[in-house]
Amino acid sequence: MADTTLVGAAPTHPTTAQIAAAIREERARRGKRAALLKHIFLIITSLVMIYPLIWMLASSLKPDNQIFGNLGLWPSELRWENYTAGWNAMAVSFTRFFLNSTFVTVLSVIGNVISCSFAAYAFARLEFSGKNIWFALMMMTLMIPYHVVLIPQYILFLKAGWVDSYLPLIVPRFLAGDAFFIFLMVQFFRQLPRDLDEAAMIDGCNPFKIYWAIILPLSVPAMATAAIFSFIWTWEDFLGPLVYLNDMRDYTVPLALRSFIAQDSVSAYGQLFAMSVLSIVPIVIFFIIFQRLIIRGIAMSGLK
Amino acid sequence: MAAVTLSEVRKSYGGLEVVHGIDLEVKSGEFLVLVGPSGCGKSTLLRMIAGLEEITDGTIAIGERIVNDVPASQRNLSMVFQSYALYPHMSVRKNLAFGLTNLRMPRPEIERRVAEAAKILQIGELLERKPRQLSGGQKQRVAIGRAIVREPQLFLFDEPLSNLDAELRVQMRVELANLYNRLGTTMIYVTHDQVEAMTMATRIAVLSKGNIEQVGTPYELYNFPRNRFVATFIGSPKMNILEANAMGGAATVADFGTLPVVVPDGPISVGIRPEQVLIGRDGDLVAEGKVTLVEYLGSEIFVHLRLASGRDMLAKAANTAQHKIGDEVSVALRRESLHTFDANGLTAPRATTTA
């Protein structure tokens, strides 16, 4: 080795900087290849996931006979009238169904966010007797499928004379009926520092004021999450409206969609899918607005 | 300004008593520091005074009023938290004004007080910022600002400087002391840092395991500790403790020989502060030792010594002293600088007779 340096062959030896550069290059190349493979995999799986949606979109523009007969996604002719005809296909127009759905959903979201955050605040911060037992009971209701309580609940609301109205769909939302949201919020509230509550206590807040002025503004991400789920679940709820609503004028969108599948004659599938596409639009809009709140909320609180 | 009187205050969690019947009188306008190792109950005590923690037994009075059942907000006090506890979603201005708004104070008065606090603490240009945009020291100032706008009769501080870096801590310590001199309000300050306690306090209460060990001025605690715990807790570096044996009015201290004491016979201990450990032979008790470590601090030198019996001692020497590891030295103690503790750790009276 000493010889080579003596005869001036040093330039053939890569310097440490060159070696480092080569290693870096090799690493970058490997990184690129891995990234490429990862992306191919992700694109394929996301195509699988999104295919039904694209299929629905395509079918909403196809003539009825092409929907199940033709495998191609692209319609041979664009039937935009599926949308106009579908909107007015029932005895009652979809304007009414959308208004009904909006009414039920908006009230449900408001009810859920308010009442569940109330209950969650109590579980997370207040001291009352039997707190742990009540919390366990509440968590247990998470494990009971909706279908189990459906009939007893129906009888309850029937006795109350609420069937055939929106009350069974809305009133429970104002009574903190959804253990999942309560649990979600309790978990969120628990990670807010208790010092804030105590500082507020010294600053003259009663428990409600602490909830309202401190906890709630800091829990925008949790509230937005609950609002999104609550919106989606209520908007696309089929069973609840099916059980409690009998008059077509009261129907929500999912119920109305079901009416396209006629028991007696040919079903208008093109129109069904056209209306299905429209029924998704509010969810998408709502999600886009509220998911920004989640991110902004986390950034704003500066707790993380 | 108000005095605070605690009598027989106890606190239990479940069956476990963590504060055992504390009697403490905080004089009006005093800066009282509660100091003790972690878990000694000092924070619990402060929180009970604040009204954030219920007391199990006893009474707490602020001024003339017994506040056992008075909610925190009506005790006319402010508290600064270790974590600052600034409301993250409010601007600095709103953080300062929040408590006043809750009192339904007229807006001009709120603005006046916020402006005044901002001026005292030099946070005027931060008023529109959110807490997350502030540095640790700035947050600390805002937290103090939030306390002073209320113009309370009592300030409570719960380890307010422990989240700051060393340099800032020293700076804030001075500022807090200045603030106290300016406001003259009664302050109760909790810390585990005895240097903070010594530098700021009018009086210090040393706590250990839910009991008060001693209450006194920094001078009293340093020079006349009532027991071994206080003696070793106050002062940095720590007091040297030498185990000894008392017999008939004389104690035998290994390496050093005997000295007259006024304690019952049995195992005792003798304490001496590092600055009173003299290197040389100029003292009443002399032992031989070896230098094991030398720490140069600029203004002074810590010399770690090992005596013939294997016992370690620490001496504080002038920064001109030239000691090296391995040096054989003599260690001298003066009798008047010794603290004698009996078998229970209580300080024994000094022996007046000369042996």
Automatic annotation (TrEMBL), chain B:
Annotated keywords: ATP-binding, Nucleotide-binding, Transport
Ranges where the ABC transporter domain occurs: 4-234
Membrane association type: Peripheral membrane protein
Transmembrane segments: none
Family annotation (InterPro entries): AAA+_ATPase (IPR003593), ABC_transporter-like_ATP-bd (IPR003439), ABC_transporter-like_CS (IPR017871), ABC_transpr_MalK-like (IPR015855), ABC_transpr_MalK/UgpC-like (IPR047641), Mo/tungstate-bd_C_term_dom (IPR008995), NA-bd_OB-fold (IPR012340), P-loop_NTPase (IPR027417)
UniProt signal peptide: none
GO molecular function: ABC-type maltose transporter activity; ATP binding; ATP hydrolysis activity
Superkingdom, taxonomy of origin: Bacteria
GO cellular component: ATP-binding cassette (ABC) transporter complex, substrate-binding subunit-containing; maltose transport complex
Family from the record: Belongs to the ABC transporter superfamily.
The name this protein goes by in its record: ABC transporter ATP-binding protein
Species name: Devosia insulae DS-56
